[in-house]
Write a structure and sequence with these properties.
The complex is a heterodimer of chains A (261) and B (255). Chain A has 261 residues and is an alpha+beta fold. Chain A contains 9 helices and 8 strands. With 255 residues, chain B is of the alpha/beta class. In chain B, the strands form 2 sheets. In chain B, strands 9-8-7-10-6-1-4-5-12 form a 9-stranded mixed beta sheet, with helices on both faces. Chain B has a two-stranded antiparallel sheet with strand order 2-3. In chain B, helix 2 packs across helix 5 and helix 3 packs across helix 4. The termini of chain B are far apart. In chain B, strand 7 and strand 8 form a beta hairpin. Classes of the chains: A alpha+beta (261), B alpha/beta (255).
């Protein structure tokens, strides 16, 4: 714990060449293959790797009128963005990558943006998922990290659990390169019963797979009491002891991060 | 049923989304290291040709571009959207930036002689010079009918019904073939280059030639004297009441 008194930002040079490709995949295993090929063929220029499922694509199409670049629907979509300093070199790498994906059948369809406008429209499909899903009902939001191969298995498990809830959906998307999954079970209205079906179930499943219950958004207030799913009680006690050193009167960011119940 | 052949033009320009900067010598804009893509109206032109092919009205689409070496990338994009083969009329570096609509129209007139298309589709204007002249000049040279600023094109019995976007609204015309069309933004939503088509495009032919091969002199007839930024918008005056406003307007000669 500490107090921030000053901030200075070290800004990197904005990349002059940004490109975006999007793929449609019929299985999650293909998403992983397409993603791995991206890392292998273009590692140093890859700036974003995102995946989204059919529920998310349908939501942005129908709720926000953003059209899919594909004529046919796919269960999964994978987006890769590259950032570099030389448009020609980057395009060469991207075309070689896209060629490999096609030859190896890693994806079932794909498009490459050929202008900044197209690139922005493809990224908009991913960036607007949260507001689009909000239109479908009450979103119980989870942000977890899991080993790559297990990422979608959790979604399938939660889908089974929610099968009996009428009008429920489950939208999932995330920063696949970090193993980060944004899991959004949705019911028409907030329901304590539905919450009870998925929580602590989701945290228990994540703990079983040795993932983290809070991948990027932090524990904050709402998840502080679930820290035990990712850290042993001895570790939690050590964290408490350290905090006591800096904050004996418990006035710095109270109720956050450490369990308070 | 498909029997028509289409010649489509495309131009490599600075990407529409880039912030333009005037060159220090004030004779143009900075193009080095700046992202370029296909002129947006040309995307509409190619998309329309591809849709006509999908509807089996057209059997072959030839795409041509006049410009430096990098124009080949733009032709490849057109091929990846569905054009069948390409023609690159290569303009030597240094003169490519001074290539003007009259020269392009003359080049396309020669390509028409060579390729014998039934329809020529161009983008209505390039976003770098905003001329909106090439289609009209070409129609004049060929003595073909023209349908410019097209937002709807329908084919029926050897004629094209075209809806044009004009100042007063929309104008419907009918032209016989062969004809020249210029595509406007609302004509269609251009498709993305898809994976399989990008791979196929690599194998499609791009024929290279020079203006001399076509017997066209591309010496510019217009000379750019100066390029400057538009004047910076100045702060307005805030006035306390309507009578002061009226006085100020009269003072400045506006009323």
């Amino acid at each position: 714990g500490g107090v921030i008194t000053d901030v200075s930002l070290l800004l990197p040079q904005a990349p002059s060449s940004v490109n975006v490709a999007m793929f449609g995949c019929d299985t999650f295993e293909k998403v992983i293959r397409t993603f791995r090929l991206a890392r292998q063929s273009m590692g140093e220029i890859v700036s974003a790797c995102e995946f989204m499922d059919r529920t998310c694509m349908k939501a942005v199409n129908e709720q926000l009128s953003l059209s899919s670049p594909f004529p046919d629907p796919h269960p999964f979509y994978f987006i890769v963005e590259t950032s570099g300093s030389n448009q020609e070199h980057d395009m060469d790498k991207l075309e070689a990558y896209v060629g490999r994906v096609f030859e190896e059948g890693a994806a079932d369809d794909g498009v490459l943006a050929t202008s900044k406008d197209q690139a922005a429209r493809l990224m908009a499909l991913r960036e607007n998922i949260a507001p689009a899903l909000k239109q479908l009902g009450y979103n119980y939001k989870y942000d977890v990290s899991l080993p790559l191969g297990q990422m979608y298995s959790l979604v399938e498990k939660v889908r089974k659990v929610l099968q009996s809830v009428e009008g429920s959906h489950i939208g999932s998307y995330g920063h696949i390169a970090d193993g980060d999954l944004h899991l959004n079970p949705i019911s028409p209205r907030y329901s304590k019963a539905v919450l009870g079906m998925i929580e602590p179930f989701i945290y228990e499943e994540v703990a079983k797979l040795r993932g983290s219950i809070s991948a990027e958004h932090g524990l904050g207030l709402k998840k502080a009491n679930y820290l035990k799913y990712s850290k042993d009680s001895e570790v939690i006690e050590m964290m408490r002891t350290l905090k006591e050193v800096f904050d004996p009167n418990h006035i710095m960011n109270p109720y956050k991060l450490l369990p308070w119940k | 049923m498909a029997s028509l052949r289409v010649l489509v033009g495309c131009k490599r320009v600075i990407d529409y989304a880039v912030k333009i900067r005037v060159r220090p010598d004030a004779l143009g804009v900075v193009t080095d290291g700046v992202k370029h893509s296909m002129n947006p109206f040309d995307e509409n032109a190619i998309e329309e040709a591809v849709r006509m092919k999908q509807k089996k009205i057209v059997k072959e689409i030839v795409v041509a571009s006049c410009g430096g070496t990098q124009s080949q990338e733009t032709i490849r994009t057109a091929l990846a959207m569905g054009a069948d083969r390409g023609i690159h009329v290569e303009i030597p570096k240094g003169t490519d930036e001074s290539l003007q609509p009259l020269a392009v129209a003359k080049i396309f007139a020669k390509l028409v002689e060579k390729e014998n298309p039934d329809i020529v589709i161009l983008g209505k204007q390039a976003i770098d010079d905003d001329s909106n002249q090439t289609t009209q000049l070409l129609a004049g040279i060929l003595e073909w009918p023209q349908g410019t600023m097209a937002s709807v094109v329908e084919h029926s019995e050897g004629k094209l019904k075209i809806t044009r976007e004009v100042d007063g609204g929309l104008e419907d015309i009918s032209v016989g073939l062969p004809a020249v069309i210029s595509a406007d933004l609302r004509l269609n939503e251009p498709r993305y280059a898809t994976l399989p088509n990008i791979m196929k495009a690599k194998k499609k032919k791009i024929e290279k030639m020079s203006p001399e091969d076509l017997g066209v002199d591309v010496t510019p007839r217009l000379k750019v004297l100066k390029v400057v930024d538009p004047p910076v918008r100045e702060a307005g005056d805030k006035v306390p009441d309507v009578s002061t406003l009226m006085d100020k307007l009269k003072e400045k000669g506006h009323i």
